Here is the input.
Amino acid sequence: MSEEKRIIIAGGGLAGSEAAHAASKLGIKVKLYEMRPVKMSPAHDTGDLGELVCSNSLKSDSIENASGILKEEMRQLGSLVIEAAEKTRVPAGKALAVDRIAFARYITGKLENNPLVEIAREEFRQIPESPGTPLIIATGPLTSEALAEDIRDLTDSGHLYFYDAISPIIDGDSIDYSRVYRASRYENGGEGEGDYINCPINKEGYYALVEEILKAEKTETRDFEKGIYFESCLPVEEIVERGRDTLRFGPARPVGLRDPRTGITPYAVVQLRSENIERSMYNMVGFQTKLKYPEQRRIFRMIPGLEKADFMRYGSVHRNTYIDSPRLLHETLQLKNHDRIFFAGQIVGVEGYIEAAAMGIIAGINAARAAMCEAPIVPSPETAIGSLLRYISDGSIKNFQPMNINFGLFTPPGEKVPKSRKKSYIAERALGAMSRFCPFQSPSI
Here is the structure.
């Protein structure tokens, strides 16, 4: 690979894959480093690019939801992640959920067959002191120790961190279907053949479950680390420690899930979401956990329908790392004191698969433009992507925390808009602004 018009990317997750795809669309050669499968991370199972390690859901696909707006913007930008998701989609109501194995294989195949992308299966351990070639660091929340130490030295700072927990996956053949029912929340009044399997729990069973979770043995964090969890991904045991009823107002809430067999809404409901197209594996929705494996098997088998559940993957907890982006990054994702170094993905302090991937698209575009000696560009803050970029580069933020896309991040309407129209107004404005952002149609490219 020549030194001219090329970039280097460290990390082959969602952000790194998107960055490579975006840069190649601009005619730029890419060398993409991915240490797996030579060196595995604590949470990955394969060497595939874009492997999902938590849920298989990419959240809502409706533009009435901020996440849906973000996905539509990414479609406009030719997102590889959205393309892969649509090719490997599994039923999940209004959510965009995928067959995680097929999804990662699709992304891997696309990049392996891209003539402008070279994939190096080795660990990227050190950042050059003065990189001439634009470099994107997209190693994610599970950045290897060697590179994490180098990032800390480069940025003259320690890392912020939190713990991210993942839910168990259950063998579909081990579910007792006589004790559960299918329904998507609010869909057809909570009745009919919905996309989720619902395990109804009565009052006595619910409090018995809570008591066992409270008493169970848990995996402890290391002595020198403090467990700080992202609020939307709290372990189930953290939820019940906040109150005996907290779980049934959270992941086990029964609202909109009336049991069609009885016509009654259960006291609590545990939902299972399909992990693959064949519906052979199911994720326990919202049941992220750090319970020890024997405890998961014992306690979760108390849930109706899961009495003989076979666990294909137990829940676990791992450390996520991110940089202090408001202090370190421009909204172009360039490091403030090294403009040839870009960061992308969850390491910049965005939370969620799609948010991480979106940052990869922008980093890929701007690193490619740097290789062509062109100025970086960013979408309008009226867009979902632009609002995320503005958030992570806002120097006024003193206690920076990871953030999902949400309506609170968008630029408020500049005119009086009825409350009933506010979300649709923001969506229309965002997609209109994104349609005017044309990074792949520059006359000089």
User: Anything to note?
Assistant: The radius of gyration is 22 Å. The chain has two domains: 6-158+323-435, 165-319. The domain at 6-158+323-435 is CATH 3.50.50.60 (FAD/NAD(P)-binding domain). Residues 188-192 have pLDDT under 50 and may be disordered.
